[in-house]
Amino acid sequence: MVKQSAKKRTTRRKGSEKFGQKRLDVRNAMIKDIPGIANLVRRVYEDMPAYTHGEIRGQINNFKEGCFVALLDDEVVGYCATMQVAEALAFQDHDWDEITGNGYGSRHDPTGDWLYGYEMCVDPKVRGVRIGRRLYEERRALAEENDLTGIVFAGRMPNYRRLRRKVEGPKDYLEKVVEGKLHDPVLRFQLANGFEPERIIEGYLPEDNASMANAVMMVWRNPYVERDQPVKKRIPRGVEAVRVATCQLQARQVADYDEFMRHVTYFVDVASDYEADFIVFPELFTLMLLSFEEKELSPVEAIERLSEYTPRLRDDISEMAMRYNINIIAGSHPTRMDDGDIHNVAYVCLRDGSVHAQEKIHPTPNERYWWNIKGGDKVEVIQTDCGPIGVQICYDSEFPELSRRLADEGARIIFVPFCTDSRQGYLRVRYCGQARAIENQCFVVLSGNVGNLPNVGNMDIQYAQSCILTPCDFPFARDGIAAESTENVETLTISDVNLADLQWARAEGTVRNLADRRFDLYRIEWDEDGKHPGKPRPRREPLGPTGPGGG
Q1: Where are the chain's structural domains?
Q2: Taking a C-beta distance cutoff of 8 angstroms, is the pair 416, 445 a contact?
Q3: How many CB atoms lie under 10 A from the CB of residue 290?
Q4: 10 Å Cβ neighbour count for 38?
Q5: Whole-number Å distance between alpha carbons of 99 and 108
Q6: What is the pLDDT averaged over residues 371-393?
Q7: How far apart are CA 65 and CA 148, in angstroms?
Q8: How do strand 327-336 and strand 342-349 relate by DSSP bridges?
Q9: Among residues 119, 144, 359, 360, which one is catalytic?
């Protein structure tokens, strides 16, 4: 029950304040703040692992309204991250990894009635402007605006290790801090901001040596809301429509580069006429550029020749994306990297003029053997004007860890350019794409090549049925297929997808794959620097000739 007579405080700070010549701004965190937030966290927690950019990206994408930054002279000097959770989850025994979805904030539940704080840090060099208090005020105001029952978090107790011989345990330490007999800067600050200690959580953050992994569950109850029992909020069935086009492109002989680009432009133009937000082309669609060579090139010669087109191709497609006002996922193209290796790269050219690259992480046996293509070492979401997306090139879609990483970072659409020479190879990509849509509760868009190119390796025969796949639940298409093309026919397949349905499914669906993961049992750890690639794989000769082999 909400007290009708209560007047809510208006504590949200929408503007800026000046202190002398300095400018202070407290606002919601944005993707552009990620480097500054990462640097701040490293400064504040010198003795603990820092966030990766992907984790911060996930925190913001999963609940932007709950992430705040404080900027002083345009430098990030404060950051806090929160999410909504159900009361049962917030107050049960848990640790930091489990409650935060391994740091990504992916357990945000828009139906949850409590605001859970899992990060708060302030630059220790900034004094006198009450950064921490301002961030706490933002949290309280958010809870009040959303009629949440309150705020809960597990607070550090950084003086515990130093003073542990003066107490009988973490509970006694907490009692003495509350009574004023011992001093703990973090707990005293939280108590001064109206939070009440609930209990000790042991083993909350093993990396927190100063607190000896202990934390104090701190609670603030919204004075403007009274609950007789926990209330589950409902997600409105809104509309957040995005129009997606997948191009099933036929391999054909072309006279030169310009003729190839005319074919690409034709489909971009058509998709733009239909006001599509995205168009995706197939993997290795640029192999057509080998069709006008005077003689058939060896695999090594072919890759070298194709890589020469990279700068021109990237610039032309970027200009095309702006001219036709559409985001283009440009299939994939072999590219020579700075270290001399050839990678299979998807260039994502957005209509704002920015260009992003997603390398194929897992080259197929044929790619490794015939072309000596090496795998990339990073997968991350790409921010677009329609929200965060992910790209997985063909074989990568058959490794569920990659899609889960993209989903944790906030991706709601995953594009899969593919190149397969047989129905069996195609179905491996198709079935895995459908699985990724279900287990990550997202849309998956497949785009493949059809036709053949004599005298061009990897283009002997092609098999494809491009499609737009959905989770399998009530708001979506009956068979989990929003749209699909006819097999082995050049065409453009277009469909509207409603991103708001994903939010509903993740919070209130028949199954909730993302939320129901057992974070207490398993997790995926990434080598963010790519320093441990493992043993090199032997270059075994594939069974087939030079076909892609279905990945």
Answers
A1: 24-221, 241-508
A2: yes
A3: 22
A4: 18
A5: 9
A6: 96
A7: 14
A8: antiparallel
A9: 360
Q: Look up residue 2 and give its DSSP letter.
A: B
Give the C-alpha distances (Å, rounded to integers) separating 386 from 65, 300, 314, 483: 17, 39, 22, 20
Which SS3 state, helix, strand or coil, does residue 120 take?
strand
Angle ∠(469,101,391) on CA atoms, nearest 5: 35
Q: How many CB atoms within 10 Å of residue 49?
A: 10
Instruction: Answer for the pair 273, 492: CB distance below 8 angstroms, yes or no.
Output: no
pTM: 0.90
**C-alpha atoms less than 13 angstroms from C-alpha of 387 in its C-beta half-sphere:** 25
80 is catalytic: no
Within its chain, how far is the Cα of 497 from the centroid? 19
Secondary structure of residue 81 in the 3-state scheme? strand
Q: Phi/psi at 483 (nearest 5 deg)? A: -165, 150
CA dist 214 and 510 (Å) reads: 36
Q: What is the dihedral of CA 283, 285, 287, 288, to 10 degrees?
A: 160
- Return d(Cα 121, Cα 131) in angstroms, integer: 9
Three-state DSSP string of 169-224: CHHHHHHHHHHCCCCCHHHHHHHHCCCEEEEEECCCCCCCCCCCCCEEEEEEECCC
pLDDT tens-place string over residues 421-449: 999 999 999 999 999 999 999 999 999 99
Q: Does 181 qualify as catalytic in the annotation?
A: no
Active-site residue (options: 98, 119, 137, 283): 283
394 included as an active-site residue: yes
Tens of pLDDT, residues 79-112:
999 999 999 999 999 999 999 999 999 999 999 9
**E strand map for 123-160:** 150-155
Among the listed residues 394, 419, 432, 442, the single catalytic one is 394
Say if CB 548 and CB 368 are below 8 A apart.
no
Number of Cβ within 10 Å of residue 84's Cβ equals: 24
pLDDT score for 230: 67
Q: How many CA atoms lie within 13 A of 322 on its CB side?
A: 9
Compute the distance between CA of residue 442 and CA of residue 404 in angstroms, rounded to an integer. 10
Q: Has residue 548 got a pLDDT over 50?
A: no
The candidate with the shortest Cα–Cα distance to 418, out of 451, 396, 390, is 396
CATH architecture, domain 24-221: 3-Layer(aba) Sandwich (3.40)
Residues 6+ apart with CB under 8 A from 258: none
> What values do phi and psi take at 68, rounded to 5?
-130, 145
Structure tokens at 438: 């279900």
Cβ within 8 Å of residue 390, ≥6 positions away? 358, 379, 381, 382, 403, 406, 407, 409, 411, 413, 414, 415
Architecture of the structural domain at 241-508: 4-Layer Sandwich (3.60)
